[in-house]
Design brief:
This protein is about 40% helix and about 20% strand. The protein is of the alpha/beta class and about 450 residues long.
Length: about 450
Amino acid sequence: MAKVVKNVVCTFCGSLCDDLEIHIENDNITAVKKGCALSRTKYLNAREEVVPLVEGKEASFSAALEAAVEILAHARHLLVYGLSSTCSEAQAAAVALAETLGASIDSTSSVCHGPGTLAKQLVGIPTCTLGEVKNRADVLVFWGCNPVEAHPRHFARYSVLAKGLKVGGRRERKVVVADVRKTATARGADLFLQLEPNGDFEVLTALRALINGKDIVGEGAGGLTRAQLEECSRLLKEASYGVFFFGMGLTMSRGTHYNVSQALALVRDLNKYTRYSVIPMRGHGNVAGSENVLAWQTGYPFAVNFSRGYPRYNPGEFTAVDLLRRGDVDAALVVAADPAATFPGRAAAVLGEIPTVVIDPHYSATAKLARVYLPSAAAGIGAAGTVYRMDMVPLPVKKLLNLPYPSDKEILDMLREGVKKCSGSREAGSTTRKMAGTGK
């Protein structure tokens, strides 16, 4: 039986384009309309052939689940990590499991936009929706990001090429790109600022000085000439409504959250003369949601520890890379992420040295290292739920196919129930032994 599902939300990247048209026949996706190359690949390969694994050997799902429960229940210092490519309902279930086990929980934010979140806590952030960008923004700044390749439909749907109510399209917009190399995004810019590596803070500081009518020392900063800096400051101040997008080129270069703090301060300065907003160019489909869920469940956006029975927050101590690198965890649960492919070598290697459980629709590099691999139904394909766009707008995602495995949320709920039963039986046994020793 063939059917067409319209207005599907693509969960690949933080743009969360919500206008896809998915053609389904015999419970298989046969065509994807309006999607980019990345989304077409994701949906057309939705039925990946994967099986549960225990110690690298095929197992039944119930056996793999039981093995995972044993690992989690006996861990003294568990790390729960990932959460960026699943629904917010699953993220909330992961928080509940971490609290039950007194674990540390961290999202992929800590290795991408976490410094930006720290900066927001320090400086504050004037932000807006992508709808406002489309309808009102006549100056767009892309700093340390490359949406043409990483968010392929961003220009057409939300920013540079989009025709809005107040701005008619590309001819009525100015585009500034700042990066260390001439990317595909930079090739279409009105002004390209090719920075020296790690020169972001210096350039942002110089721009703040010029925008506020101050002079700068020397003939330039951060690889840019004085003329380039003056041209950029003039263009930024002439905006009727500007939006500053930033990516990992800013958050993960030397200076990290100080870079973002300076960028946010630059926007604050610009708001003395005109109107500006900031939107982090989030990568994974629901990484913004992971910070939202953790914040409303624990009070903190990432790097949270429950070992004392209440949530504690300390980036650098409870962030996943730091915990693994120091050897502070004895087991890990990875949900909807692939840290073995992205973490520094030592941190990634530890995942293969300790008992690791992976919940993921795909057999990833991390799954190859894991003691237990539990396949799941992909969010927005085999599971419905809620996801957050990069501008923090929540969107509902649909279940399109009947896939053979449960959703991430269902698996996390099963693990939590299993752990509670396992812990209860251990406590009961301990009580029995104590009573036997007293003769009562």
